[in-house]
Amino acid sequence: MASVRRRRGDRREGASASDGAGRVNDGPARSPRIHGAIARAIGVEIVGGVRNPGDLFGGEIEASEAFGVSRTAYREAIRILAAKGLVESRPKAGTRVTQRERWNLLDPDVLAWSFEGEPDAGFIRDLFELRGVIEPAACAFAAARRDEQDIAEMRAALDDMAAHGLATAEGQAADQRFHRAIFAAARNAPLGALASSVSAAVRWTTEFKHRKRMLPRDPMPDHLRVHDAIEAQDAQGAHAAMAYLLDLAFDDMGFDRPA
């Protein structure tokens, strides 16, 4: 069993340390979220291509011993992965990695795992294409339906972005708040259900951009244009401003545009 990998040695929230032999070491007191750490370790291997679709997992006893955890904890980790579409378990057939089209690629955890390594350029393009469909429409709805509290929340998020900068965790959290505030202002429940996925995509694409480029372009003017159009109740202008913001954000990634 491969060891629990972490980008640049960082420890994610809820994750436990590895002893370097694939075992999860959570110190003197075993964490009640140990199954989450195991699910993360396996999930990173799946989305990173270490485990491929169709690969069969070892037996439950063997796998739990490799991680140094109970069978119950390992079993719960597999349930988490199955809920995200990454694996399937069948009686007498064992547990296998599912085909990629069955993965819940917009699940916030799956997005996070995808960006722990070097995400595929095509996947990043796909994310921006999806955002290009969803977010400009959300901005147009927000411009037509927003109230003063919505505008205040967007402005507070922008103030924090300006104060901290997007190279910091605080600035990136403010960026996510800004985008979530837009979805809230859109007053559309099904669209709002996508807010956590979009927020996760914003977070990880921003972090990836800063990982690759030391001094990326200042995105604040683009966000301000979106805010100002929504505040002015200019639905068409808000749609265009967000589409422009996303075009520039994709260019910042340094990838070629799809044909």
TrEMBL record:
InterPro entries documented for this protein: GntR_C (IPR011711), TF_FadR/GntR_C (IPR008920), Tscrpt_reg_HTH_GntR (IPR000524), WH-like_DNA-bd_sf (IPR036388), WH_DNA-bd_sf (IPR036390)
Name of protein: GntR family transcriptional regulator
Any Pfam family the entry gives: GntR
SUPFAM superfamilies in alphabetical order: GntR ligand-binding domain-like, Winged helix' DNA-binding domain
Record carries keyword Nucleotide-binding: no
Organism annotation: Sphingomonas sanxanigenens
Domain HTH gntR-type, residue spans: 32-100
Gene Ontology terms, MF aspect: DNA binding; DNA-binding transcription factor activity
Region Disordered, annotated ranges: 1-31
